[in-house]
Amino acid sequence: MKVWEVMSINYHKVRLNTLITEARAIFRKHDTRILVIVKNFASEKLEGYILRRDVLTVTSARSNLTVREVLREEPVLLPDMDIREAFNIMSKSNVDAIPVVKSLATRQILGIVTLRDIIAGLKAAGYIPRAQAAGEVMTIRGVPLLSQNSRITKAWRLFVHKG
Q1: Is 162 helix (H, G, I), strand (E, B) or coil?
Q2: How many whole angstroms separate alpha carbon 32 and alpha carbon 34?
Q3: How far are the Cα atoms of 106, 129, 131, 147 from residue 85, in angstroms, in the given order?
Q4: How far apart are the first and last CA of the chain?
Q5: What is the CATH architecture of 3-133?
Q6: For 106-121, how does the pLDDT look when each residue is reduced to its tens digit (9 = 90+)?
Q7: Structure pTM?
Q8: Burial class of residue 148 (count of CB atoms within 10 Å of its CB; 0-12, 13-18, 19+)
Q9: Which end of the chain has the lower number of beta carbons within 10 A, N or C?
Q10: How would DSSP label each residue in 46-88?
Q11: Peptide bond preceding 99 in cis form (omega within 30 of 0)
Q12: Spatial separation of the C-alpha atoms in residues 88 and 73, rounded to whole Å
């Protein structure tokens, strides 16, 4: 199965000079995981993107920070990539959504792919997971633990940066 088969062509765009606080409001309003960044709204050339967690790390509600200052340029996906390769890229990059571009040279935005899109595509194709119970695939290694006396700021930092 290819990326183009599971990607969504419905995505939200913001300009390079959009304030982080505006981006945060768009994430909330549209319940999206990714915002695509373009120079202007007529452009389909990807300048970069931000994920919901990128704006969560900015703590001030009155910040003058723009999306230009926190955008990600990579990774991106190509439409003819296998979704297994897309999943591996997402996993290695610790992201749950990535833009799809026509080519690396033009960076013309075609859509976005989220982990949910990949799972839905696999399910629609009849994929049956090998594991029957969560315990067969889950791990407790590397899972951060907090005591009941830990500060909320520590918990928040772990949540935002580790997922």
Answers
A1: helix
A2: 6
A3: 21, 18, 21, 38
A4: 27
A5: Roll (3.10)
A6: 999 999 999 999 999 9
A7: 0.78
A8: exposed
A9: C
A10: --EEEEHHHHHT---TT---BGGGT-B----B-TTSBHHHHHH
A11: no
A12: 18
